[in-house]
Amino acid sequence: MSTSSQQNRHQILSRIRQGLGREALSAAKQQQLQSAMTQPQRNLVPQRAQAQGQAAIDMFIAMATEAAAEITHLESLEQLPEQLTSLIPEGDTRPLVIASETQLTNLDWQSANIETAQRVAQKGDLISLTSCIAGVAETGTLVLKSGPNSPTTLNLLPDIHCVLLRKEDVIGGYEDAWDLVRQAKLPRTVNFITGPSRSADIEQKLQMGAHGPKRLIIYMI
Q1: What span, in angstroms and rounded, lies between the C-alpha atoms of 74 and 198?
Q2: pLDDT tens, 88-132?
Q3: What integer pLDDT is reported at residue 26 of this predicted model?
Q4: Domains in the chain and their CATH numbers?
Q5: 112-123 as b/e: b if 16+ CB within 10 A
Q6: 31: left (phi > 0), else alpha (psi -120 to 50), else beta?
Q7: Which of 24, 50, 184, 188 fits a 20 to 30 Å CA distance from 124?
Q8: Could you say which DSSP state residue 117 is in?
Q9: Cα-flanking dihedrals φ and ψ of residue 171, to 5°?
Q10: Is residue 197 within 8 Å of residue 214, measured between CB atoms?
């Protein structure tokens, strides 16, 4: 962090402390908090979040389906382009917006007659395709992190969000997910996505796609 950034950070935190009527933390307390961040300790993990192997996969499928996610099973990654052709309306010329990841960009999209674009998602995009870090069996949740090759807009803006999930990446609970996220440098954004976007704020009527994709399709390999 640059000197100017450190100074700005210090000024912001000082103003927050003043507003709350608090003094700066002691050196001992600061060291305690720093240790907690660098060496995080797990909380109590519920029994359902300890599932592994096929039991975790079965639980993930059940929970994700209950949350209105759609799951398609594939034998190989090469089947993915053909599967996505059914999502594109006839005559629709909008490209499939994909994450700039080799496993996705190297697929034979041309043979499936699908035009792709590697960029941030924009208003009006129909379909996006990303991978994910893991699937959490406990709640049927996908874990995605942002980065130069996979901007967060791909998860939020298109009407249909397609996600590649490998069975070996299905884990039991959220503690396992955070362990995976912490293995590398923490990204700017971590998204936990359970089913498509929805809201029942208006007259208690469930509206799909209220704040994001109307459909979440998980391609499990």
Answers
A1: 27
A2: 999 999 999 999 999 999 999 999 999 999 999 999 999 999 999
A3: 86
A4: 1-39 (no CATH), 47-220 (3.40.50.10420)
A5: bebebeeeebee
A6: alpha
A7: 188
A8: E
A9: -120, 170
A10: yes
